[in-house]
Amino acid sequence: MVLLIECIVGVVLFTAIAVPLTMRDPLGSIGDYPPAIRRRCEELGLIEPKERRFSAAELVRKVIAVIVLLAGLALLLAKVNGDTTFWQGFRDSLVIWLVIAWWDALVVDCGWFCHSPRSRIPGTEDMPEYHDYLFHIRQSCIGSAIGLPVCLLVGLLVQVL
User: Fold this and answer.
1) Residue-wise pLDDT tens digits, 103-122
2) Residues 109/39, Cβ–Cβ less than 8 Å
3) Spatial contact of 81 and 149, defined as CB atoms under 8 Å apart
4) Long-range interactions of 111-117: CB distance < 8 A, separation 24+
5) What is the pLDDT of residue 52?
6) Which residue, 143, 151, 150, is CA-closest to 92?
7) Burial tier of 56 (Cβ tally within 10 Å: 0-12, 13-18, 19+)
8) How many whole angstroms from its chain centre is CA 14?
C-alpha cells in the first residue's frame, strides 16, 4: 500500500512540475519535442540550430534532477518503506520509476501533449508530429532503460543507509 501511495505522489509531483513548465514556455522543453517540430522551430528562428538534442544547461538540469531523485528515493525507501537490502531498494525504486515513466508517456504525452493547444509552438500548430504517439512510447522505453542504472544506485544507497 505504501508503494502505491508513493507511485501516486510521484505521478502528481511529476505532472505538477512538467506540465506547467511546458504550458508556460513550450520552447523551454523543446528537447522533449519530436525532431520535426524542433527542426521547424530552427527554420523559424525560434531556437538556435544545434547538433545535440539537449543543451548543456538542459542536461545539467536533468542530471541534477536525477541526483536529487536518487538521494530522495533512497531515503524514502529506507526510512518509510523499511527497505534494507539492495534488491528491496532496487525493486521499489524501479516500480516507482516505471510508473512515472509510463504515466508520462501515456497520460501526459499521448493524452495531454498530443491534444492540447497549450503545448503548441506558434508556427508549428499544423504539424502532424504533435500526434506522433510512437515517438512518446519510444522515448518512454529509453527513459525506462535509463531508470535501470539509476535504480541500481538507489538500491546501493538503500543498502548503505
Assistant:
1) 999 999 999 999 999 889 99
2) no
3) no
4) 112/19, 113/22
5) 65
6) 151
7) exposed
8) 8
